[in-house]
Design brief:
129 residues; alpha+beta; Pnp Oxidase, Chain A; seven-stranded antiparallel β-sheet; globular
C-alpha cells in the first residue's frame, strides 16, 4: 500500500483548501471541487458538508478513485470511507483546530452528522496505477 511522504502530508495538511476530482466510469476526471482538508497523523481526510447526497461525494463512490491538488501537490488517490465514531471525533478536532479562525457556524457545518457520514480518507495511488 502506498503512503504519503512526509513532504506531501505537510504540504496538503497545511493547505487552506484542496481541489478534488473523482474519476468517472470511463476513466475521465469530473470537474474539480474545492473543499477543506485535514490531516490526522499520517492520513488526510475530507468531508462533504452536504452529506452523502452531494454531487462530488456521490462521484467519489462510483470508482473510488480520483485526483487531488493542494499545497503544490498533484496526486492520484483512492477514496476510502470512514465510518467509526472514534476516528470521526478525532477528525472533528482536526477541523476545529485547523479552521479555528472561521466563524463557528462555518466550522460546525463540517461537524454535523450529515457531514460526518460523508468522511473520506484520501489514500495515495502509486504513479501509473
Amino acid at each position: 500500500m502506498t503512503t504519503w511522504t512526509s513532504d506531501e502530508l505537510t504540504k496538503i495538511g497545511t493547505a487552506e483548501e484542496l481541489e478534488i476530482a473523482s474519476r468517472r466510469s470511463d476513466g475521465t476526471l469530473r470537474k474539480p471541487v474545492t473543499i477543506w482538508v485535514v490531516r490526522h497523523g499520517d492520513d488526510l481526510y475530507v468531508r462533504s458538508v452536504n452529506g452523502r447526497t452531494s454531487d462530488w461525494f456521490r462521484g467519489t463512490q462510483e470508482r473510488l478513485e480520483g485526483h487531488i491538488k493542494a499545497g503544490g501537490v498533484n496526486k492520484d488517490v483512492t477514496f476510502a470511507e470512514v465510518d467509526t465514531d472514534d476516528i470521526n471525533d478525532q477528525i472533528d478536532a482536526a477541523y476545529r483546530t485547523k479552521y479555528s479562525r472561521y466563524a463557528a457556524s462555518i466550522i460546525n457545518s463540517t461537524l454535523t452528522p450529515k457531514a460526518r457520514s460523508a468522511t473520506i480518507k484520501l489514500v495515495p495511488r502509486p504513479a501509473g496505477a
